[in-house]
């Protein structure tokens, strides 16, 4: 059994009088693909926002490898290897595809002002390595031929793939994907599924997923958490979730 | 048609309402009392002519638009030329050419021309510095002149109290201004957009008022005078040297020529401007330059990728302030006198106008805009009363015809070689 990498306990998020997330607990093991599902407005994205530091949770603990990270600012959490995508595409549209990938490597680059000013060998090497790493991932997501095109001019499916590649640039340990298959056609969804598989097998990434495409969720997840109206409803393997009457009721309403 | 007629009448009246009090009425002193003098017939005729023109223009608005559309296909400059001119490569060559010209001409130019060119170069330096903050990092800074003042006073005070020379004070002034930028930026950069603009505006004024009221240290409104000019490795350009110093013309056995001082100042300013150009050119190709652009496009995505927005913004703010510090200390050396009145808000506005007029982020644009903004008022000395009017007109025309600025630049893109 592999190690637990992310442990969330009693997570609550209150906006004024609205309790958007109520006492949610998650447990994610290393190299698992874990999905979070639930009807629209259930609070899945709010959980994501809490985990990645975009919101400060009202209560609860979040532990990454045993280290408490709740309440840290977003960029610090990202620095610890928790990187996310957003429901809508958030690429730097004016910049080229490869530049998008270079930005994401910012923390790993030689950002020394003077060495950049005088183009020292160390600076050149760091830039070259960044370029090679970006090229590697562009190839991986089949976007190498579009490397020098502005990201905003790519097709929607390509933009989503580029976003995942951009996340991989930060060398994450947990990749959190917020509805990655939304707006993709069935073939692209298959590609996405294969890509997530590769991420886990070859790059040791743990994936946390919010998704509405049940076929994708059921086929790829090791574990599923169901959230309804901010509260946890059920969790278990895909088979357990599929047969859970509570879950069916939440999705389809009372019979 | 009636709606057009109404609007046209209103516009014509507006011309009268605006022009008559401004151009027509004059206050003059008769004995000890002020009297209001009416307008001369020619002025009235001109205003009347303008109002008629305005009336016709609004009345036949549709026809006018049709005429313009049929008369002028496409933009003023063909897109191809425009694209070529905005390429970083083209601009680099143009800048190279300009540098050569700039190095050679002062030896043949007149003293007055070189002096104005020096002033232009100060504004180029300021424009380039503000360009980092506004053009590259997208932070609207209306108090930039504050850092300019810090630089100027750093040199003035250090030379006044400790007798330090220009070349020692130049980096110190840069550092001082950068420190101020850092300290002010820290609390301010949480804000964005309009709020940031207003707070920076306030800080700029605070610095000026501080300098003005700190009479014991800064001399208050009188400022500090007799600031020494820069020297060339200890050689001064005055007619006679101070104790223990040598003058340039004595050392080289030349006859004293007052123009050489002006040319030397010009060359120092040119050196500073070239240094700024070099640094900014490198910044654009460094990770931090890319991060500025990314931050301007999407701050949330940046945070999700582990970029610290505060640090990145702060670096832009600090660097920009540093260049203002250089410009300030040179300004103090050139004038020989600093007073708080040199650092009013209108200076900030002029520098910002240079950046916007030139095209955000473009270095060649800044150079061109600085020339326009400083040279035009000098050339239009005869119309000095209408200077601001012409500025306004220039800005309005710019927004209509070239909203992207005189010479915008495409950022140098990193390319993946295949």
Write the layout of secondary structure elements.
The complex is a heterodimer of chains A (255) and B (418).
Chain A: E1 4-15, E2 18-29, E3 33-37, H1 44-51, E4 59-64, E5 67-68, H2 74-79, E6 82-84, H3 97-104, H4 113-117, H5 121-140, H6 156-168, E7 174-178, H7 186-203, E8 206-210, H8 214-220, E9 223-228, E10 231-236, H9 238-242, H10 245-252
Parallel strand pairs in A: 3-8, 3-9, 6-7, 7-8
Antiparallel strand pairs in A: 1-2, 1-4, 4-5, 9-10
Chain B: H1 2-24, E1 26-30, E2 33-37, H2 41-59, H3 61-71, H4 79-86, H5 88-104, H6 111-136, H7 144-162, H8 166-188, H9 193-213, H10 215-218, E3 224-225, E4 235-236, E5 246-247, H11 248-251, H12 258-284, H13 287-297, H14 299-304, H15 309-335, E6 337-338, H16 345-358, H17 363-379, H18 387-401
Parallel strand pairs in B: 4-5
Antiparallel strand pairs in B: 1-2, 3-6
Structure description:
The complex is a heterodimer of chains A (255) and B (418). Chain A is α/β, with parallel strands linked by helices and 255 residues long. Chain A contains ten helices and ten strands. Chain A has a six-stranded mixed β-sheet, with helices on both faces. The longest helix of chain A is centred in the middle third of the chain and has 20 residues. Chain A is globular, with a radius of gyration of 19 Å. Chain B is mainly alpha-helical. Chain B is built from 18 helices and six strands. In chain B, the strands form three sheets. Chain B has a two-stranded antiparallel ribbon. In chain B, strands 3-6 form a two-stranded antiparallel ribbon. In chain B, strands 4-5 form a two-stranded parallel sheet. Chain B is globular and about 80 Å long. In chain B, 38% of the residues are buried. The mean pLDDT of chain B is 85. The chains are: A alpha/beta (255), B mainly alpha (418).
